[in-house]
């Protein structure tokens, strides 16, 4: 009969076995797809360590996961949400410190055998082990992503990682929250060895025995760290916060060990950090402070600072919003995009892409390279087909340069993509993604041509950004297999895929396209049909309002800065240049025809377009460009706008509010009209597709934080001042009358 302690260990998914004098502690939490760290898990692990310490037969310990493709995914975020006060969070952090200190000081060698994701608390766990081996699997990544949740590492990571790999590399990982692949982890010194998957356990057992016997000695602490075996030879994967600190800051490594140099280094680091985050993300600042405390005052002080900061951050609004986004995207990964969870996607073995332009080439890349299925690109001429292949090659070349791919691997992935000017190769495709010019007549022609050369079960997906999918389906013999797949440019970097269904779209078609999007690495939302769908529709009034401000005499730089200060990654005028001023002009009439005068764009930009200023693609828009890089505003552009060069200094906060509230109000309209299926999808779509400030949680979380009644008053104020384009969404009025927020049932 199992003892009480054995029952606790089993509940936490921990098991203990001894093989040839090495205790193997396996974590495999029952009923969970991944392992997570909690106080109970830590306590059970410590108890097993003590058992190993008492057992004279045991000379060393191996720590391994029983999951197929996961080591420890991090701390249990659900558990953190149940804690009631910062002091209680601090206590949890201190308990983890004590447990990992015991692990680090353990009298017998402990080897971490890592396969799959080793993130957050999982990495902090293994950092306290004495030797770390990771598999060379693409599933294996290590990192401390806590800042992406508005937190910092709370189990010693802010202290152990800098001590192991140096402040420069540790700050880069902690402040950005990015993951690193096995080869990079070894190069940095986070792990000692990278091995093939089948060898992991056996080699871990061997290394544990060698460490116990003294035939394997480890030198580290970022002082030329090496693991030397008996023979004397070495044994041999966002986002939001990338590029926070300049590499020039770390040009002199000795700064870390020099008190005066350290002060200069951290002061400059904070200055650069605030330039990027604009003070909107407190976790990064806290991380910088805590790491500095540890380097200047020692680990004990650093751990105490870490626990205090961790406790404070869990209860910030920023962390709450970022955690909500995390839960939203996690939930979306489990959904098939339909109301019927039993609908299964069909296998997609081959894809065709129509159009070899910027979007077509990007779609070919995420399909052929990331999804990993053969892709056939068709364009109207050889030059277009060649551009698509060149675009894919360019992205692959960047990856080779960054050493995330070898040249051999790059060539193999490129071979998955072919291009031509006819429909050869289309007969066997399961999915056709169309990315041709935004013209309904042209798209109907393309649909007819495709259906004539493809099988009866082939799905036709349009990458249109504004034309209703139901209208496209009218040109099809198989309307139930017509759907929208709206990608965002640049396709290989933008995380969102917006799938649009019309009333007749078959459920299996939706589920299949959602599955394709996930395999391409996208966060996928499914919305219902309508002009502009969701993202293009809420972007239109946002951009229109910026144009109205230009017409009123706003300075371009001040207007862009106002929205960046609000939290958007770029200002609306910069975005207009990126999208293409001509593209925006074509979408405008479609939106106005559908929604009337409130969506009418001002005539202020007509002169800019007629002057041939299309934006970055022509090196001339509102800004000038040199070798693709944005320069200053072209002063001549003001001559094409009302008021000429006589610009007005408008209130920055009012400019930002006017532009942002247009997006929020339109999002609420989309929910009220059934375009959106939930506020959650609306928030995810706006953040991942349009750059709505993540720390605000999306349009609906922002509306709830403002208070629907307060939001209504603001819109009514602007409606009185500027007219019907600020008319409050009917659903907002309903929510205010009911006294409810958007996330309330």
UniProtKB/TrEMBL annotation:
Domain spans labelled 3-hydroxyacyl-CoA dehydrogenase C-terminal? 532-625, 656-740
SUPFAM superfamilies to which the protein is assigned, alphabetical: 6-phosphogluconate dehydrogenase C-terminal domain-like, ClpP/crotonase, NAD(P)-binding Rossmann-fold domains
> Alphabetically, which GO biological process terms does the record hold?
fatty acid beta-oxidation
Q: Which InterPro entries match?
A: 3-OHacyl-CoA_DH_NAD-bd, 3HC_DH_C, 6-PGluconate_DH-like_C_sf, ClpP/crotonase-like_dom_sf, Enoyl-CoA_hyd/isom_CS, Enoyl-CoA_hydra/iso, FA_oxidation_alpha_subunit, NAD(P)-bd_dom_sf
Pathway the protein takes part in: Lipid metabolism; fatty acid beta-oxidation
* A Pfam family: 3HCDH_N
> According to its UniProt record, which reaction does this protein catalyse?
a (3S)-3-hydroxyacyl-CoA + NAD(+) = a 3-oxoacyl-CoA + NADH + H(+)
Q: Which UniProt keywords apply?
A: Fatty acid metabolism, Isomerase, Lipid degradation, Lipid metabolism, Lyase, Multifunctional enzyme, NAD, Oxidoreductase
Q: Which domain of life is it from?
A: Bacteria
Example GO molecular function: isomerase activity
Annotated ranges, domain 3-hydroxyacyl-CoA dehydrogenase NAD binding: 350-529
Q: What is its EC number?
A: 4.2.1.17
Which family would the database say this protein is a member of? Belongs to the enoyl-CoA hydratase/isomerase family. In the central section; belongs to the 3-hydroxyacyl-CoA dehydrogenase family.
For this protein, the record's NCBIfam families field holds: PRK11154.1
State the protein's name: enoyl-CoA hydratase
Q: What is the gene called?
A: fadJ
């Amino acid at each position: 009969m199992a003892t009480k302690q054995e029952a606790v260990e089993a509940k936490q998914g921990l098991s203990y076995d001894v093989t040839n004098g090495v205790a193997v502690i396996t974590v495999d939490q029952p009923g969970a797809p991944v392992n997570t760290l909690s106080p109970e898990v830590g306590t059970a692990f410590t108890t097993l360590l003590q058992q190993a310490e008492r057992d004279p037969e045991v000379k060393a310990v191996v720590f391994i996961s029983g999951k197929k493709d996961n080591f420890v995914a991090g701390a249990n975020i659900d558990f953190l949400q149940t804690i009631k006060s910062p002091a209680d969070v601090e206590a949890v952090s201190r308990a983890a410190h004590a447990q990992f200190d015991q692990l680090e000081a353990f009298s017998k060698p402990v080897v971490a055998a890592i396969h799959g994701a080793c993130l957050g608390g999982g990495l902090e766990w293994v950092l306290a082990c004495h030797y770390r081996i990771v598999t060379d699997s693409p599933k294996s990544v290590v990192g401390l992503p806590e800042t992406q949740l508005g937190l910092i590492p709370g189990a010693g990571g802010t202290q152990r990682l800098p001590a192991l790999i140096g402040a420069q590399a540790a700050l880069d990982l902690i402040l950005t929250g990015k993951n690193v692949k096995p080869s990079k982890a070894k190069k940095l010194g986070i792990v000692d060895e990278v091995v093939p998957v089948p060898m992991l356990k056996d080699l871990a057992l061997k290394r544990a025995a060698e460490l116990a016997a003294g035939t394997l000695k480890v030198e580290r602490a970022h002082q030329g760290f090496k693991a030397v075996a008996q023979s004397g030879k070495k044994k041999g994967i966002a986002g939001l916060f990338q590029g926070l600190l300049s590499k020039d800051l770390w040009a002199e490594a000795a700064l870390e060990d020099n008190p005066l140099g350290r002060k200069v280094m951290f002061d400059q680091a904070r200055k650069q950090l605030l330039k990027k985050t604009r003070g909107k993300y407190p976790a990064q600042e806290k991380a910088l402070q805590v790491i500095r405390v540890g380097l200047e005052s020692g680990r004990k002080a650093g751990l105490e600072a870490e626990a205090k900061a961790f406790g404070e951050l869990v209860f910030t609004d920023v962390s709450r919003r970022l955690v909500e986004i995390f839960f939203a995207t996690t939930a979306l990964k489990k959904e098939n995009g339909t109301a019927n969870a039993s609908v299964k996607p069909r296998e997609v073995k081959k894809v065709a892409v129509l159009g070899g332009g910027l979007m077509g080439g990007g779609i070919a890349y995420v399909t052929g390279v990331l999804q990993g299925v053969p892709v056939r690109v068709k364009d109207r001429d050889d030059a277009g087909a060649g551009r698509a292949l060149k675009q894919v090659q360019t992205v692959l070349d960047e990856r080779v340069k960054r050493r995330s791919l070898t040249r051999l691997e790059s060539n193999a992935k490129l071979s998955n993509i072919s291009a031509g000017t006819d429909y050869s190769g289309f007969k066997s495709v399961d999915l056709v993604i169309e990315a041709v010019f935004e013209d309904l007549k042209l798209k109907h022609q393309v649909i007819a041509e495709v259906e004539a050369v493809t099988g009866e079960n082939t799905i036709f997906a349009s990458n249109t950004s504004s034309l209703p999918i139901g209208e496209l389906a009218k040109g099809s013999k198989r309307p139930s297999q017509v759907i929208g797949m709206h990608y965002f440019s640049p396709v290989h970097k933008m995380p969102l895929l917006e799938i649009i269904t019309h009333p007749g779209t078959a459920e299996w078609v939706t589920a299949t396209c959602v599955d394709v999007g996930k395999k391409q690495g996208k966060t996928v939302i499914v919305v219902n049909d309508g002009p502009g769908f969701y993202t293009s529709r809420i972007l239109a009034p946002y951009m229109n309002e910026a144009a109205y401000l230009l017409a009123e005499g706003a300075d371009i730089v001040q207007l862009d800065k106002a929205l960046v200060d609000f939290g958007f990654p770029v200002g609306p005028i910069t975005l207009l240049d990126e999208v293409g001023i001509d593209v925006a002009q074509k979408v405008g009439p479609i939106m106005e025809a559908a929604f009337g005068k409130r969506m009418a764009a001002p005539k202020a930009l007509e002169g800019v377009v007629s002057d041939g200023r299309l934006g970055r693609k022509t090196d001339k828009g509102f800004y000038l460009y040199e070798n693709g890089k944005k320069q200053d505003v072209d002063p001549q552009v003001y001559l094409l706008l009302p008021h000429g060069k006589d610009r007005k200094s408008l209130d920055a906060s009012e400019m930002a509010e006017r532009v942002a509230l247009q997006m929020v109000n339109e999002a609420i309209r989309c929910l009220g009209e059934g375009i959106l299926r939930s506020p959650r999808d609306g928030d995810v779509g706006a953040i991942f597709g349009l750059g709505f400030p993540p720390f605000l949680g999306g349009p609906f979380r922002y509306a709830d934080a403002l208070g629907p009644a307060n939001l209504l008053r603001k819109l009514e104020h602007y409606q009185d001042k500027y007219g019907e384009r600020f008319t409050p969404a009917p659903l907002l009025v309903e929510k205010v009358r009911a006294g409810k927020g958007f996330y309330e049932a």
